[in-house]
Fold each of these.
Amino acid sequence: MPYIITDAERETFLKLSTNEEREQFIENFWLRRDPTPDTPENEFKEEHFRRIAYANEHFASGKPGWKTDRGRIYIIWGKWDDLEQHPSGGNYNRPFDEGGGSTSTFPFEVWTYHYLEGIGSNIKIEFVDSSGTNDYHLSPILEKRRAVYVPGAGLSELESYGPG
């Protein structure tokens, strides 16, 4: 629940003093999210736990998958619409909006969601494994570039020509 509970719900929960109150709160928490309350299944709850299981199976890296950045995003927003993977890093021809040119990168992934309610359209989320441990974390676009950490080697070929 930590990724989907609202601030107001968290505040209320923390004020509860008995296990019975907490259990009732949790039951109501799931009931409020049930898209079909007249059926025995709670599809929202089932999907939430399915996402946790998927995250644990696919994104674990020295910690449970649900505790990783990829796991958190997957649990909150679900499966991406488009996936770009570069599991070995290496040479990468950057698109113009990233500065163009060719550079060397850490392993990275870009998840694209066509639409996220309350966020917008064509949302790209990038994860980088800069430690080489399969612990991909949310990152700014340029972090994937290996050379950015090497003095004098941080620019792509196109950037080396200067502004223009």
Note: The first helix runs from residue 7 to 15.
Amino acid sequence: MLYKNILWISLLLLSPAEKTKWVVSESSSLSVNGSTNINKFSCVIPTYDQTDTLTMAQVDKGVILTGNIGLKIESFDCHNSIMTSDLRKTLKEKQYPRLYIHFLSLSEFPQLTTEPKSITGWVNIELAGTTKRVEIKYQVSMDGQKVIHLLGSQDINFSDFNLVPPRKLGGMIKTNDLLSVAFHLKIKAI
């Protein structure tokens, strides 16, 4: 996997392809939706605490997207203090304080219109010391203020990252393994 990443980065650096840079806005957000055997829950990181840059370049075999975002685990809010605490503990916040999304590629160069367009792309998600490559489904659009909206979604499992879903009351309340992750990046071309 490291060899493949080095190859992609080398192609990006050596390629005469046109490069586009995007700045990720602090108003970007991430949500995680899941369920237990008795109810559903939604946890959010309502704002991004920094700005990052993503670089996109079209090459012969597709579109390379490089850059990453690092989200603080302590920023998760499940709208219930016990659930928030359990999620942070499950994600090993003290040992791994950030969740990282490393962008790798897009299926095609996004058409930036007000009408959302569907594309896919690959990312590495790094959570609690484990990295997993996943394909993300995106909706891409641009608003009247030239802000690009990149909405991504994908289902993942706690077990994908060697994590055990939280349980309460001696195991009577069990969190399901499946989580639906969605993020909304608000970005501007620079």
Note: The helical segments are 2-14, 81-90.
Amino acid sequence: MNVSLSELANRVQGVVVGNAQISISALSPIDDVLVGSLVFADGEHNLRRAEQSKAAAILVNQQMTSSQKSVIQVANPLKTFIQLLNFFYPVSKPKASIHPTAVIAEDVTLGNNISIGPFVIIESSTTIGDNCVIKGHVSIGNEVTIGHDTVIHPQVTIYAQTRIGSRVSIHASSVIGCDGFGYTFVDDQHLKIPHVGHVVIGDDVEIGANTVIDRATLGATVIGEGTKIDNLVQIAHSVKLGKHNILCAFTGIAGSSVSGNHVIFAANVGVSDHVQIDDGVILAARAGVPPKKHLKKGNVYLGNPARPKEKALEQELAVTRIPMMRKKIKGLSEKISLLSERLAQIEAEK
């Protein structure tokens, strides 16, 4: 692809400063710039790097410019760069078709313009909306509902009665709707608690590879609209996540915990059961939340057990002072011993 800088600027409502007829053939990251490419420079340091690179032009904010290369000035360079990524590298969508090896129950309802790959299984009473892509070796249980423009990647398993919204993406080998891990110890054995609920996934959700979302004991495990889930995440039975949450890799959320909207779970966060998390909370990497805690709106939590940022830093600093305090205590103890000996001598001389 070769596009003039002026055409790109018009596409993203930007302003060209410099030669608007320069041809752009690709986009490049700042640390691996291709000849003839457009590069996004965030900050003065990266602008200097871009100016010294092989880039044909630079994408910058409205306050920045360059005397060495042509630039496109935009209000939000990162958002614009995402737009341009979609323009230069559009996602290819397979043609509407049903592979002859797919096994589809007679009473399944299929929308228009659907692509179903090889060895897919779709069980009874399931409904799939328009423009969906179901890739190879996907297994979909009975009474599942899937909205329009949803993509299910290879080897995903979707258990019965799951409800999935529109424009959802579920990546390879994830499992949606399996039994929750619920047992009670009775008569010297672990008695399984039946899980007869289901999973509800809102619109515009993305679920990474090898992630598991368990069905509820009763009712629904809910993933709110716009939530983005990384690879290797575990969401237990009856959890309810709000809208536009972020869950990074290796996060685990135990049963019946509830989050508000715009909550961020950084990597390797562990949330115990029956935790209430308010809107806008940020859980830093490796934070651990004990059972039945209430994390308050807008706070950042660190550590294990998770504490508000200010408290956690205060306690961490206190821990680092322990060696110095021990040294001081040892010195004071020695002085007290000397004073005690001197007092004993004075008493003996009386």
Note: The radius of gyration is 29 Å.
Amino acid sequence: MLRTNDINVVVADLSMPGRDGIDLISHIKASNPVVSILVLTMHEDCEYAARALRSGASGYMTKASTSEDLMSGIRRIASGRSFVSPSVSEGLMLRFTRSDSETPPHTTLSHREFRIFELLVQCQTTTRIARELSLSVKDGQHA
């Protein structure tokens, strides 16, 4: 749709079947840098928000937000500004104001490393993780 239509705002989730949300954001921004992306997701952890915003999202809010907040977020990013829901903004502020010694180790992981970490926490097998990330189980190379 982005290739054939004049779209200004995309509302996307991070957890979608078949595609990682952070990768989708990066792909959209690479091919359509002027498109504003608002992430609407169940993930309240500020680590997800930080990764989405670093990947090019203009805004981030949780699905617990009100419809009024959603409309406000869409209008705000459509006008070229950014938007982060209040429930996430406090966590982001704490994340960026911590000293290095207080920073949790998982925040330094690359997106791919963090994705593997996420899948391991979900008790996925190495075979399933490799398949999802298009890797070879034996040598860690792209399949």
Note: Helices lie at 21-31, 46-55, 67-78, 86-97, 111-121, 126-132.
